[in-house]
């Protein structure tokens, strides 16, 4: 059965750094779960871990995915996964989980009365060869990228607040309410810096103005485009694409895949595809204990996240 066991969780993660993504590491969860807390569920017989993030909003305690954490769910160090018959440790009014496209996990959530919703993300699989990656760009994207290389300089960003402000502006333009606090972002950036697992980059124009910023993190096999934005008040044509291209270059240098992220907004997904992103998918599992909880959350999301109401 699932049990809460931090020591076992830490041991399994430490023994499997080449199997578990960065988002499962205790240090990442400690940094990302600042407005709540995470519980280390473990199925020791199969060396399987399941970190679950608990938080509270409008007086309702619920489970969801931590900020800047695209997917969690289960990860196992063995081929023997937990049975669908084992216990469900979650008993909140509302629970939302993201997990990779694995049938046994999907079956378990279905068995526990979760609604399973396919969601897209975009990725460049390794090995990434830059010359080949450049050719896979759509002609318009390639033209904008080459122009941006002439107009902007890429440098390492040191100002977390500037990155935060640009990301908030970009979310607002897409009709998405920001739920990430500046303190959370500072904690995450500090943690990835300590563990040599991330970098902030910015694009500056010839006047020295920062036009766009981006945050990339990486683990044993993937570089993730985690957060980004630009200042629409300054000419920025191609600057965000240039930063994504720099992230792809990091993945190439490290011999890793590159993940653009999801594309709930069709325009964002089109941008990722134009830069060679291949569409993949993950699952969202959602469960409402009562019908009225679903109605409240759905109505709220229509206000702060109209592109992501499921």
Question: Your description of this structure?
Answer:
By secondary structure, the chain is α+β, with helices and mostly antiparallel strands. The chain folds into 2 domains: 139 residues; 159 residues, Gcn5-related N-acetyltransferase (GNAT) (Aminopeptidase, 3-Layer(aba) Sandwich), CATH 3.40.630. Strands 1, 2, 3, 4, 5, 6, 7, 8, 9, 10, 11, 12 and 13 form a 13-stranded mixed β-sheet that branches. The longest helix is centred in the last third of the chain and has 16 residues. The relative contact order is 0.16. The mean pLDDT is 88.
Jot down its keywords.
310 residues, Aminopeptidase, alpha+beta, 36% helix, 2 domains, 10 helices
**Class computed from helices, strands and strand pairing:** alpha+beta
Q: Supply the CATH superfamily name of the largest domain.
A: Gcn5-related N-acetyltransferase (GNAT)
Count of runs of 4 or more consecutive helical residues: 10
Straight-line distance between termini: 29 Å
Per CATH, what is the topology of the largest domain?
A: Aminopeptidase
Q: Write the CATH architecture name of the largest domain.
A: 3-Layer(aba) Sandwich
Q: How many beta-strand elements?
A: 13
Q: Which stretches are poorly predicted, pLDDT < 50 over at least 5 residues?
A: none
Question: Could you describe the largest sheet, including whether it forms a barrel?
Answer: 13 strands, mixed
Shape label: globular
Helix content: 25-40%
Quickly count the domains: 2
Mean pLDDT: 88
- What is the CATH class of the largest domain? Alpha Beta
Strand proportion, as a percent range, falls in 25-35%
User: H/E order of the elements?
Assistant: EHHEEEEEHEHHEHHEEEHEHEH
Radius of gyration: 20 Å
């Amino acid at each position: 059965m699932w049990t809460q066991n931090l020591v076992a969780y830490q041991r399994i993660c430490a023994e499997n750094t080449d199997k578990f993504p960065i988002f499962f590491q205790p240090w990442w969860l400690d940094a990302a779960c600042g407005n709540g807390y995470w519980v280390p569920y473990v199925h020791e017989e199969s060396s399987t871990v399941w970190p679950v993030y608990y938080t509270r909003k409008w007086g309702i305690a619920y489970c969801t995915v931590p900020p800047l954490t695209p997917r969690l769910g289960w990860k196992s160090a063995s081929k023997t996964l937990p049975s669908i018959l084992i216990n469900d440790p979650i008993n909140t009014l509302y629970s939302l989980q993201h997990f990779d496209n694995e049938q046994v996990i999907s079956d378990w959530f279905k068995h526990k009365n979760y609604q399973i919703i396919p969601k897209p993300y975009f990725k460049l699989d390794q090995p990434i060869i830059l010359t080949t990656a450049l050719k896979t760009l759509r002609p318009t994207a390639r033209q904008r990228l080459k122009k941006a290389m002439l107009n902007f300089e890429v440098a390492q960003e040191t100002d977390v607040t500037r990155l935060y402000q640009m990301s908030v502006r970009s979310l607002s333009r897409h009709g998405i309410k920001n739920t990430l606090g500046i303190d959370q972002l500072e904690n995450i950036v500090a943690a990835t810096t300590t563990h040599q697992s991330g970098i902030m980059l910015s694009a500056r124009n010839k006047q020295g103005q920062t036009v766009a910023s981006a945050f990339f993190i990486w683990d044993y096999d993937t570089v993730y485009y985690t957060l980004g934005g630009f200042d629409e008040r300054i000419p920025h044509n191609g600057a965000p694409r240039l930063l994504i291209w720099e992230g792809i270059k990091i993945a190439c240098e490290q011999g890793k895949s590159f993940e653009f992220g999801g594309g709930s907004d069709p325009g964002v997904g089109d941008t990722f595809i134009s830069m060679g992103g291949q569409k993949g998918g993950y699952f969202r599992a959602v469960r409402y204990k009562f019908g009225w909880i679903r109605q409240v959350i759905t109505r709220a999301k229509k206000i702060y996240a109209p592109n992501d109401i499921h």
